[in-house]
Design a protein that fits this description.
Helices cover 38% and strands 21% of the residues. It is of the alpha+beta class.
Length: 499
C-alpha cells in the first residue's frame, strides 16, 4: 500500500491526514493553538506552535502507518503570513497573519512605489491589500528596523514547515500569489515589486509549481517525527488553492464556496485575467499552468463562531441551529454585515466592522443566529456577482469547510445563490487537497485533473427553494448598507486611534 500525507497549517490548528491512492481518508487529526491580537487590527502567531503541532501529528501518523509506505507529503497553509528568519534559520518575530490589518498606510506607499494601482494590478492580479505579505514587510522595515536588519529569509507559513522538515527554502506559485511580490501572469518573482518593497531576491525561496517534489525530509526531521528520511515533500498550495483541488475545482465552469474561518468563492481560470477593479483575487492555481479567481470574506464561519462564543450560553451548535431553523427567511427584518475582521471582497476596507441592522425588541437569539448565516451568504453572493461578467454563472456550487456541516446554512446558501449546493466525499479541505497533490507529485496520477476525477464523488445536494425569491428582494438592501456606513467606519477608526 502507498500512503500520502496532507498537512494544512491553519489559523487556529494544524490538520494532518493520510489518504490512499483512491482518495480514502484513513486517518485525520488536528492540533490546536492560539493566535494573539496585542492591538486592534493586529493578528500574530508563534511559528513554533505550528511546528510543535506538525511534529505531534506526524508522530501519531508514523505510529499507525509504516513510514516506508508513506510515499509523499503535501503541504498547505494559511496564506499571506509573514515569517522572518535570520541567517541561522531562527524566527525573528511572531508571524503577522493573513487577518492582520495594520498596514493600510504601507499599502498606499507600496502601490505608489510600484508605479500606481493599474501597474500593480497588471503585475500581481490584485491590489495591494492589508492582509497581504508585502505591506507587512514594509511595516517591519519602518517600525522594527532592528528586526529587518537581521532578515535572511522571508517565508509563508506552510513554507516555514517545509523548512523545518527539510532545511530547504522553497515555495510555490499559488501561495506566492498572495504576497504582492509575484508576477502572477508570468509565475515568477517580480523585479518591480521586489524593488518597490526593498526585498532582495536572495531573501525569497525558490519557486515551483504545486505538484513538484521540491525537497525531502531531512535526517533531523525524520528523527523527530518517525518519517523516513528522504520522503518527498510536494510543493502543495495555499489553503484555498489546495482546498479547491480537494473539492474538484480544477477545470473550467466549476465553482466552490468555502465556509471556513474566512469565506471564499473560488473559480478555475484557464488564463490570467484580473477583474477590472481588482475586487476579485487573480492567483496562480495549484493546477500547473492555470489560474483562479477568488472572492474572500474575512469573517465567514468566524462570524458564527463569534456569535456562538458571545451568545451561545452553553448551547451546542446544533441547538443554536435549531433555534434559527423556525425563523422565516430574512430574520424578520434583521440584517448582519459580517465585517468582524474588516473586509476584502468586494470592499477592501480594514476599517469595516460587523453590524446588526434592523434590530428590534421582537428579535431573539434565533433571529440573530439566522441573520449571521444570511449575512455571510449575502457577502459571499457579492463575490459570486463579480464573477458573472467573467462568464461564470454556475448552476451548481461545491461547498466545504466547517460551516457546510449545517444543513440550514447550506439551504440558505442555495436560496441566496439561487444555485444547487453540492457536497463531495472529501470534507477535509486544504489538507485533503495537499494529499492529492502529493499523490500527483509522486506519480500516482498523471495530472491534478485525473486525480480529482478518480478520488471525488458527490455525496449530497441542496436545491434552491421558495425562499430564493425572498432573498432576491432583501439582497439589494444588504448591498447598499456598506456604502451607507463606509464613512462612519472610517470616522470610528479615527476615534479609536487606528487611523
Amino acid at each position: 500500500m502507498s500512503y500520502y500525507i496532507g498537512i494544512d497549517v491553519g489559523t487556529s490548528s494544524t490538520k494532518a491526514l493520510v489518504i490512499n491512492a483512491s482518495g480514502e481518508v484513513l486517518l485525520s487529526m488536528s492540533h490546536e493553538y492560539s493566535f494573539q491580537t496585542p492591538q486592534a487590527n493586529w493578528a500574530e502567531c508563534d511559528p513554533a506552535d505550528w511546528w510543535k503541532a506538525t511534529v505531534q501529528a506526524l508522530t501519531e501518523i508514523t505510529t499507525q502507518f509504516d513510514p516506508q509506505q508513506i510515499v509523499g507529503i503535501g503541504l498547505s497553509g494559511q496564506m499571506h503570513g509573514l515569517v522572518l528568519l535570520d541567517a541561522d534559520g531562527n524566527v525573528l518575530r511572531p508571524c503577522m497573519m493573513w487577518n492582520d490589518q495594520r498596514t493600510a498606510t504601507e499599502c498606499v506607499e507600496l502601490t505608489e512605489a510600484a508605479g500606481g494601482a493599474a501597474r500593480v494590478l497588471e503585475i500581481t492580479g490584485n491590489p495591494i491589500m492589508t492582509g497581504f505579505t508585502a505591506p507587512k514587510i514594509r511595516w517591519v522595515q519602518k517600525h522594527e528596523p532592528e528586526v529587518w536588519a537581521q532578515v535572511a529569509k522571508i517565508l509563508l507559513p506552510k513554507d516555514y514547515i517545509r523548512y523545518c522538515l527539510s532545511g530547504d527554502f522553497y515555495s510555490e506559485v499559488s501561495d506566492a500569489s498572495g504576497m504582492s511580490l509575484l508576477d502572477v501572469g508570468k509565475r515568477e518573482w517580480s523585479s518591480t515589486m521586489l524593488e518597490a518593497c526593498g526585498v532582495g531576491r536572495s531573501q525569497l525561496p525558490e519557486l515551483t509549481e504545486s505538484t513538484v517534489a521540491s525537497t525531502t525530509v531531512s535526517e533531523v526531521a525524520a528523527a523527530l517525527t518517525g518519517l523516513k528520511a528522504g520522503t518527498p515533500l510536494i510543493a502543495g498550495g495555499g489553503d484555498q488553492a489546495a482546498a479547491a483541488v480537494g473539492c474538484g475545482i480544477v477545470k473550467p465552469g466549476v465553482v466552490s464556496c468555502s465556509l471556513g474561518t474566512s469565506g471564499v468563492v473560488f473559480a478555475h481560470a484557464e488564463a490570467f485575467a484580473p477583474e477590472t477593479e481588482g475586487r476579485l483575487h487573480a492567483f496562480c492555481s495549484s493546477v500547473p499552468g492555470k489560474w483562479h479567481h477568488m472572492g474572500v470574506q474575512l469573517s465567514c464561519a468566524g462570524s458564527y463562531q463569534w456569535f456562538y462564543d458571545t451568545m451561545g450560553q452553553g448551547a451546542t451548535f446544533d441547538q443554536l441551529n435549531a433555534e434559527s431553523e423556525w425563523i422565516a427567511a430574512g430574520s424578520e427584518g434583521l440584517l448582519f454585515l459580517p465585517y468582524l475582521s474588516g473586509e476584502r471582497c468586494p470592499h477592501a476596507d480594514p476599517n469595516a466592522r460587523g453590524v446588526f441592522f434592523g434590530l428590534s425588541r421582537m428579535h431573539g437569539r434565533g433571529h440573530l443566529g439566522r441573520a449571521v448565516m444570511e449575512g455571510v451568504a449575502f457577502g459571499l453572493r457579492d463575490a459570486l456577482e463579480l464573477m458573472k461578467p467573467l462568464g461564470l454563472a454556475p448552476k451548481e456550487i461545491v461547498v466545504n469547510g466547517g460551516g457546510a456541516k449545517s444543513s440550514l446554512w447550506r439551504q440558505i446558501l442555495a436560496d441566496v445563490f439561487n444555485a444547487k449546493i453540492v457536497t463531495v466525499n472529501a470534507s477535509e479541505g486544504a489538507a485533503f487537497g495537499a494529499a492529492v497533490l502529493a499523490a500527483v507529485g509522486t506519480g500516482a496520477y498523471s495530472s491534478v485533473v485525473e486525480a480529482s476525477q478518480a478520488m471525488l464523488r458527490i455525496t449530497g445536494m441542496t436545491e434552491p427553494g421558495p425562499d430564493a425569491a425572498t432573498y432576491d428582494r432583501i439582497y439589494p438592501v444588504y448591498e447598499k448598507l456598506y456604502g451607507t456606513l463606509k464613512d462612519s467606519f472610517e470616522a470610528l477608526a479615527k476615534v479609536q486611534g487606528i487611523l
